[in-house]
Automatic annotation (TrEMBL):
The keyword Repeat applies. This is RRM domain-containing protein. Keywords: Repeat. Gene3D superfamilies: 3.30.70.330, Tetratricopeptide repeat domain. Residues 532-578 are annotated as: Disordered. It is found in: Nucleus, Nucleolus. Residues 536-550, 558-568 have a biased composition (Basic and acidic residues). PPR repeats lie at residues 76-110, 146-180. CDD domains: RRM_ABT1_like.
Length: 802
């Protein structure tokens, strides 16, 4: 009779025939084989259910091609670029890394424009680590960062108050011979100002003036920010701020260089690039923010941070002397300054004066008054905050999710009182079905628990449920929960699969390995060392204090050998002697087999790894070549239309919205208007436009996915009225559009690069001529001083003229 048993790892059967086991060597081999077989069978039977459960857990996650196509949200670089832009506009910056990982898994080659969009998104979200990750990936894909990317990197360093890293990026630009522009210096200045470092700020100002560049309003704003953020603060900080505001009046309002075209296309304003406090309000309309008062905005914000009412009133008098009226942002800073300094009456008076001026009050103005009134948690202030919220709700002015979360976070810090303000803010947000942010809900939940609210209170139950949902729904929470579950199961499996034989570790490989279960192949690396120690294992799987498992294993082996030996005393002695011999032989054979198997497995793994690397390299080369051919074929199918005139108030977003209804659009580029022409147009249309003008564009290019669509759009729209809503500012304008035959987007970028190079070369020549003129003038001055000193010495030696 032959007994077949299937091995654990290979699944191939092996046989044991008793007829061939007549010699002592065969008997020894039979005993050793039988012992190992019994040991593996006991382990397999004990953990079969756990291994099967884990196997089913990972096996069902494999989806078919149809399911993958249904869940996939992008197929090429252009679609991924659209996804990144959408996430950035939704302020969901934490998902950008996941989008990039999905793109890599799909085998999509990222483009320069896509990397620009990713870096801009991480810059807006102040995610420093993600920004530098995309910078490194951009270099790894063969795209060297240009001036715009370096400006974004310096800007995100300023947002995170990491001025040392910003200076290192500036040095890296010099290393790679990337010529910085004016925006680079201003970004670096504001990055150092955010950290409160005055010496680097003034060094940058000296370099700019030495190069012949004047200081604009953003430079003065950076100087004010540097004095405000300096630690420790000087006693004359307010005086310095007022002096800088006076000096900024000599700066001409006519900007020598407009905003970068790429920044306009990416939706990055100068205020956001330079980290000014008005960055989030720059797109507001209705007189909320006047961009001509940038220096005043930063100065009033600094006075509110310093709680200096006297300096703020001085700035108001200076503003009146300049015959300029304060906008909504300045009113908000006045209210903040009064309330944070403890003057509730004057702060409320400023708010009431603005309400009586028959101007529509924005929600931010109410939120500023409420937040400032809660400063210090005085009874008068808390009552004013609650009355303001009631008045705001009665006028149908509602809080946004961000404002509501900020106010709830502040109101939840009240330690004494009835907690009515926090409860009212929570009720307002619940009435509009808005869930606050996690920090706000956590603070509110903690405040309710500290007040000993009953556990069955309806409010506490709702807040507790919302808090639990936010904890489970935060970014990475589900993934972390699944990892913890797998970690717990893995620790149990690893500890139970490690058996002790004669005081030495006998580790068995995991049962569930293979291509259909990739997560279990590295299951031992997931287990943490501390958890392994609790289960009697060390950091490398060595036994620590598993005495109970040792005793059980030894007892099993003793029972096994007792069953195989005789029944009399002499036979027992003989059996014990045979047992000891068998133990030593088992150890020697087991060690030799394990060493041989390890060498064999290592050699096989090295050979397979080399073959896999060769296959991957060939596959990647062929895939890259095929991708390049596909991109070239797609580029040949695209068509470009030229717009010789761009109507006022038209920007790339609105143009894409209008033209996308005729066909899919790949890219849009609008050339910024000449600054001198823009100034003349402002003067002519000042009365009609109310003194405010958007960024103007002179001409533009639109790239359609198909040539036929571009030709049809040009023939159909040329000379026709733009139309749309009658309230639109370009409703009566006409299209001036033409299809450019045999014209590609590369031709446009080459022309733009050539124009930029010519402009930079002309600028360099002008700067060099100015330096030569300055050096010549300084040399003449030195010569004149030398001659005058010689004459004075001669007069002293020989005396004056007789």
């Amino acid at each position: 009779m032959t007994r077949f048993t299937r091995t654990e790892e290979t699944g191939e059967p092996y046989s044991i025939n008793p007829k061939t086991c007549t010699k002592p060597s065969n008997l020894l081999t039979l005993a050793v084989t039988h012992f190992i077989m019994r040991l593996l069978q006991s382990i397999y039977r004990h953990h079969k259910s756990v291994g099967g459960a884990l196997g089913r857990r990972f096996f069902v996650t494999s989806a078919g091609a149809e399911e993958y196509a249904r869940r996939n949200y992008a197929n090429n670089a252009s679609e991924y670029n659209t996804v990144v832009t959408s996430l950035t506009s939704q302020r969901r910056f934490f998902l950008l890394r996941d989008v990039y990982d999905d793109m890599m898994l799909d085998g999509v080659q990222p483009t320069r424009d896509l990397f620009h969009s990713l870096i801009v998104g991480t810059m807006k979200g102040s995610r420093l680590q993600d920004t530098f990750f995309f910078r490194d990936q951009m270099k790894a894909n063969g795209f060297l960062p240009d001036v715009a990317v370096y400006n974004y990197l310096i800007s995100v360093c300023g947002k995170c108050k990491n001025s040392d890293q910003a200076i290192r990026i500036f040095e890296e630009m010099k290393k790679y011979e990337v010529k910085p522009n004016g925006q680079t210096y201003v970004c670096l200045l504001n990055a150092c100002a955010a950290a409160g470092q005055l010496d680097p700020v003034y060094a940058i100002v000296r370099d700019m003036t030495a190069a012949g560049a004047g200081l604009d309003k953003f430079c003065y704003a950076g100087l004010i920010t540097a004095h405000t953020n300096k630690i420790p603060r000087a006693d004359d900080t307010a005086t310095k701020i007022i002096e800088l505001v006076e000096q900024s009046k000599g700066w001409s309002s006519v900007e020598t260089s407009g905003n970068n075209a790429e920044n306009e296309m990416m939706g990055v304003s100068k205020e956001e690039l330079y980290n000014l406090p008005t960055a989030e309000y720059v797109h507001r309309r209705g007189g909320f923010l006047s961009r001509l008062l940038t220096v005043y905005h930063v100065a009033f914000h600094a006075c509110a941070e310093l709680k200096d009412v006297q300096a703020m009133e001085t700035l108001l008098e200076m503003l009146k002397k300049d015959r300029k009226s304060p906008d909504v942002y300045i009113v908000m800073q006045n209210i903040r300054c009064y309330l944070h300094s403890g003057d509730i009456d004057n702060g409320h008076k400023v708010f009431e004066d603005y309400i009586c001026s028959e101007k529509f009050p924005p929600a931010e103005l109410y939120a500023t008054l409420v937040e400032g009134a809660m400063f210090g948690y005085t009874p008068k202030g808390m009552q004013l905050a609650q009355d303001t919220l009631v008045n705001m709700n009665s006028r149908n002015i509602f809080l946004s999710p961000r404002m509501g979360s900020d106010l709830l976070l502040v109101a939840a810090g009240e330690k004494s009182g009835g907690y009515t303000t926090a409860n009212y803010i929570w009720d307002l947000m619940q009435a509009r079905k808005i869930t606050p942010s996690l920090p706000a809900v956590e603070a509110y939940y903690t405040g309710l628990k500290d007040r000993e609210v009953p556990a069955d209170d309806p409010r506490l139950v709702v807040v507790s449920r919302a808090y639990d949902n936010l904890l489970r729904g935060r970014p990475g929470a589900v993934r972390q929960h699944q990892k913890s579950k797998v970690k717990t199961r893995t620790i149990t499996t690893t500890c139970n699969n490690s058996k002790i034989a004669d005081g030495k570790p006998f580790s068995r490989k995991n049962c569930n390995t293979g291509t259909e279960q990739p997560a279990l192949s590295n299951v031992t690396t997931i287990a943490a060392s501390q958890s392994l120690r609790r289960h009697g294992m060390g950091e490398k799987g060595n036994p620590k204090s598993c005495e109970r498992s040792e005793r059980k294993q030894r007892k099993k082996k003793e029972n096994f050998f007792v069953k195989e030996t005789g029944k009399t005393d002499e036979e027992e002695e003989e059996a014990s002697r045979v047992e000891n011999n068998l133990k030593s032989n088992v150890e020697e054979i087991g060690e030799a087999d394990m060493i041989g198997k390890e060498k064999e497995v290592n050699l096989m793994e090295e050979g397979k790894q080399e073959e896999l690397n060769e296959k991957n390299s060939k596959h990647s080369k062929s895939k890259k070549k095929q991708r390049l051919l596909e991109e070239a074929a797609k580029a040949d199918q695209r068509g470009i239309c030229y717009l010789s005139r761009i109507p006022p108030h038209m920007d790339p977003v609105k143009l894409r919205q209008i033209l996308s209804q005729y066909g899919e659009i790949q890219r849009i580029y609008l050339a910024p208007e000449d600054p001198s022409t823009r100034v003349l147009r402002k003067r002519e249309n000042r009365k009609r436009d109310g003194g405010f003008q958007d960024q103007g564009f002179s001409e533009g290019w639109v790239e359609f996915t198909k040539k036929g669509v571009a030709k049809r759009v040009a023939n159909m729209l040329n000379g026709e009225q733009i139309g749309g809503k009658k309230r639109s500012s370009f409703y009566y304008d006409l299209w001036n559009i033409k299809y450019l035959s045999k014209f590609k987007w590369d031709d446009l970028t080459a022309e733009i690069a050539y124009k930029n190079a010519v402009r930079e070369q002309r600028l360099a020549l002008e700067i060099s001529a100015a330096k030569r003129e300055r050096d010549f003038y300084l040399s003449k001055v030195d010569k004149s001083r030398a001659l005058s000193s010689i004459e004075e010495r001669l007069k002293k030696v020989f005396g004056g003229p007789q």
